[in-house]
C-alpha cells in the first residue's frame, strides 16, 4: 500500500524538525518512554517523527475532531508499520473530558489557533483549562502557533499550574520597526503538586 501524501503543518519553517530537536534537547531531559498527546493530530506526522527519528518509545495518542483525519492517520500508521504504541482517536478537546494528567508531553500545533478563530474569549479560556489538565504534573505543554506572539501565549497559558519553560527559535523578520517570527513555539512546564 502506498503511504498517502498529506500536508505537514508549519513545515515551511521546519517546525516539526525544530520541535523534535527541542524535545530531544537536554533542556527537557525527556526519557525515551515519554508519553505524548498530539492535539489536532491531523495526519499524525508529528507522532511518526517522534517515533522514527526521535526514538521515543512511550505511548502516543493523536486526537482530532475530524474523523477523516483520524482515519488518515491510522492508515498512514498502518502503512508505515507504526501502529504499535501509537493510537488515534476522534475527540473534541472542548467537549470531551478524558482522564486528567495522563501525558508527559502535550503538543498543540495550531489547535489553539483554530479555537481562537471562534473569537469567543470564554471558548479560548475553556481550551486553556482543558489542555492544562491533560498534562501530567512535572510534564510539558508545547504550543506552536502562527497567530500569537510569545508574550500573548504566555498571557493565555501562564496561569494555574503552568510556567513558562522556553521557546523554539525560528528565523526572524523585521517590519515597521518591529522584529518577529512567522510562528512561535512556546513550552510550558506543569508544576508538581
Main features:
single chain; seven-stranded mixed sheet; two-stranded antiparallel ribbon
Number of strands: 9
SS content category: alpha/beta
Low-confidence stretches: none
- Please compute the radius of gyration using only Cα atoms: 16 Å
Characterise this structure.
30% of the residues lie in helices and 28% in strands. The protein has helices at 15-23, 45-52, 67-79, 111-116, 121-134, 150-157; strands spanning 36-39, 60-64, 86-90, 103-109, 135-145, 162-168, 172-175, 178-181, 184-190. The N and C termini lie far apart (48 Å). It is globular and about 50 Å long.
Question: Summed up, what is this model?
Answer:
This protein has helices spanning 15-23, 45-52, 67-79, 111-116, 121-134, 150-157; strands at residues 36-39, 60-64, 86-90, 103-109, 135-145, 162-168, 172-175, 178-181, 184-190. With 193 residues, it is of the alpha/beta class.
Walk me through the topology.
Elements (H helix, E strand, L loop, with lengths): L14 H9 L12 E4 L5 H8 L7 E5 L2 H13 L6 E5 L12 E7 L1 H6 L4 H14 E11 L4 H8 L4 E7 L3 E4 L2 E4 L2 E7 L3
Parallel strand pairs: 1-2, 1-4, 2-3, 4-5
Antiparallel strand pairs: 5-9, 6-9, 7-8
Amino acid at each position: 500500500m502506498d503511504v498517502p501524501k498529506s500536508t505537514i503543518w508549519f513545515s515551511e519553517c521546519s517546525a516539526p524538525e525544530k520541535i523534535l530537536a527541542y524535545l530531544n534537547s537536554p533542556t527537557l531531559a525527556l526519557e525515551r518512554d515519554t508519553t505524548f498527546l498530539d492535539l489536532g493530530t491531523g495526519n499524525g506526522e508529528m507522532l511518526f517523527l517522534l517515533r522514527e527519528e526521535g526514538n521515543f518509545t512511550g505511548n502516543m495518542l493523536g486526537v482530532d475532531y475530524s474523523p477523516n483525519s483520524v482515519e488518515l492517520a491510522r492508515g498512514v500508521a498502518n502503512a508505515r508499520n507504526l501502529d504499535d504504541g501509537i493510537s488515534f482517536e476522534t475527540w473534541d478537546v472542548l467537549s470531551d473530558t478524558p482522564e486528567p494528567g495522563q501525558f508527559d508531553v502535550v503538543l498543540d500545533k495550531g489547535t489553539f489557533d483554530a479555537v481562537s478563530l471562534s473569537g469567543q474569549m470564554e471558548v479560548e479560556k475553556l481550551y486553556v483549562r482543558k489542555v492544562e489538565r491533560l498534562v501530567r504534573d512535572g510534564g510539558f505543554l508545547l504550543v506552536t502557533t502562527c497567530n500569537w506572539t510569545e508574550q500573548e501565549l504566555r498571557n493565555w497559558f501562564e496561569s494555574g499550574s503552568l510556567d513558562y519553560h522556553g521557546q523554539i527559535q525560528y528565523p526572524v523578520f523585521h517590519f515597521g520597526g518591529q522584529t518577529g517570527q512567522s510562528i512561535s513555539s512556546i513550552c510550558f512546564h506543569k508544576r508538581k503538586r
